[in-house]
Design a protein that fits this description.
three-stranded antiparallel β-sheet; mainly beta; 6 strands
Length: 138
């Protein structure tokens, strides 16, 4: 989850979510108290009603496959080709951000169908897909 910490007074050390942090300073140990606050990844000021949304995002990757060409040892030569793969992501969102996500996904969800189990296929070696960036371009 998206977390930020806020320092609190010693009088609040027993409050829920407050944790002690001890730091050695000049031969002695000083303890301060910090509250863990979960927040919206898009708007860190939002700290109420935070939900984690799991996203299976499509990304272009590459896969290796055996060609019809044969190596000297009799094995098939390998080549690569582009393929669509998926990257599992998580984002922590407050109510307003979650509503924006659902609204943006609505036309795609409306046109979608329930996913079918994947058939048993010949094993393919997949290369990692490029890491996703904020603008969607790797």
């Amino acid at each position: 989850m998206a977390v930020k910490f806020e320092q609190v007074e010693e009088s609040e050390k027993e409050a829920p979510g407050v944790e002690p942090v001890s730091v050695p300073v000049g031969g002695q140990e000083i303890t301060t108290y910090w509250r863990r606050i979960f927040h919206d990844d898009l708007d860190p000021e939002v700290t109420e009603d935070i939900f984690t949304a799991e996203i299976l995002a499509p990304v272009m990757g590459t896969e290796e496959y055996e060609t019809d060409e044969v190596n000297e040892d009799g094995s098939h030569k390998l080549a690569t080709r582009p393929c669509m793969t998926h990257e599992r992501r998580e984002v922590d969102l407050g109510k307003e951000s979650m509503e924006k996500l659902l609204e943006a996904l609505k036309p795609f969800l409306d046109a979608s169908r329930e996913a079918q189990p994947l058939p048993q296929q010949a094993k393919k070696r997949r290369a990692k897909a490029p890491k996703a960036t904020a603008d969607g371009i790797a």
